Amino acid sequence: MRVTVLSGAGMSAESGVPTFRDVETGLWAKVDPYEISSSDGWRRHPEKVWAWYLWRHYMMKSVAPNDGHRAVAAWHDGADVHVVTQNVDDLHERAGSRQVYHLHGSLFSFRCDRCGLAYHGALPAMPEPVDTVEPPMCACGGLIRPDVVWFGEQLPTAAWDRSVEAVSRADVAIVVGTSSIVYPAAGLPELALAEGIPVIEVNPEETPLSDRVTVSLRETSATALPGLLQRLPALLG
Ligand code: APR
């Protein structure tokens, strides 16, 4: 069976990683998303943007995959699993998932904002979150930026192409932990539905996708995913 998982920030919530839009705890509750995750914001104050991503990079060292990540990784025994994630963390990979496509980039790779050269140099330590850190400079004079997709930027072509293929070839798509409002990623479950592929949503809250999917489970990912494949026949009828 071919299973394609479409995950968002809620997938990592039970690992202690804040989501973006959960009202009280969301990352956007504390910062202005446009100021901190856009190329304009980077141009205006790179030291603020760099500090924010460096903090999120280091925070990943203190969290671990949860039962939801581990369940998806275990599905490889018996199913052909592809993971399409909007998340920039590495928790799917650390749980053992292979075939993971990062639509919005990764907190673990960096590049020059001028020549595009990958940066593998040392990163300044960050014992606790600070408001500003000067980003390193490339030999060409450009600034080193995180390899993540900011608002208004193009998604990585290879990740997007593999994701569309993984959705189109799936026997079932499982959308977990995303508010399903940021396109083009939010268009992937719609593509599956348009092709007659059953879509299961896992989210403790309702989303704009909830009344269109085949089944919408009001459950958290760490609760719903461990037994989900066994539930598929009953869920899909
Ligand atoms: N299990 C499953 N879902 C959860 C859990 C959980 N334990 N906790 C929260 N959620 C759900 C919330 O109900 C919400 O619908 O996860 C979703 C998180 O939504 P967002 O914070 O909007 O995150 P996401 O959908 O991944 O954001 C998409 O927006 O800011 C950009 O690039 C950023 O990739 C991000 C994109």
UniProtKB/TrEMBL annotation:
Residues 1-235 form the Deacetylase sirtuin-type domain. Coiled coil: none annotated. One of its GO terms (molecular function) is histone deacetylase activity, NAD-dependent. Its main location: cytoplasm. It catalyses: N(6)-acetyl-L-lysyl-[protein] + NAD(+) + H2O = 2''-O-acetyl-ADP-D-ribose + nicotinamide + L-lysyl-[protein]; N(6)-succinyl-L-lysyl-[protein] + NAD(+) + H2O = 2''-O-succinyl-ADP-D-ribose + nicotinamide + L-lysyl-[protein]. Zn(2+) binds at C112, C115, C138, C140. One of its GO terms (cellular component) is cytoplasm. NAD(+) binds at Q86, N87, V88, D89, G177, T178, S179, N203, P204, E205, S221. Its EC number is 2.3.1.286. It is found in: Cytoplasm. Binds 1 zinc ion per subunit. It is an enzyme of class 2 (transferase). Substrate binds at Y53, R56. Its cofactor is Zn(2+). NCBIfam families: PRK00481.1-3. NAD-dependent lysine deacetylase and desuccinylase that specifically removes acetyl and succinyl groups on target proteins. Modulates the activities of several proteins which are inactive in their acylated form. 2 residues (Tyr-53 and Arg-56) present in a large hydrophobic pocket are probably involved in substrate specificity. They are important for desuccinylation activity, but dispensable for deacetylation activity. This is NAD-dependent protein deacylase. The lineage of its organism: Bacteria, Bacillati, Actinomycetota, Actinomycetes, Mycobacteriales.
